[in-house]
Specification:
Helices cover about 60% and strands about 0% of the residues. By secondary structure, the protein is mostly helical. It has one domain.
Length: about 100
Amino acid sequence: MLILAIILIGLAAGWAAHLLVGRGKPDYARLFLVGIIGSFVGGLIGSLIFDDGLELRPSGLIGSIIGAVIVLLVMRALGISERRTEPPSPSSGNRKR
């Protein structure tokens, strides 16, 4: 039952973060990973805010969403973009003169 709760919280956090900062068509495997990683990032931020030391631990839904938003923003800053559904642009060698 705990595994199912982790999966659902991870998907919910990733989906909410995608709604807040994402663009394009959502990839559910990516949303799940962003949500799970975001849960630990949110737990780390929560432990720093509440002066519990530097502990890496999972957080609840709100902390997971905050962490997932941070993870998506960092991914965007690093150039790790989401899957695009647009066709590639034509190469410069095929232009008419």
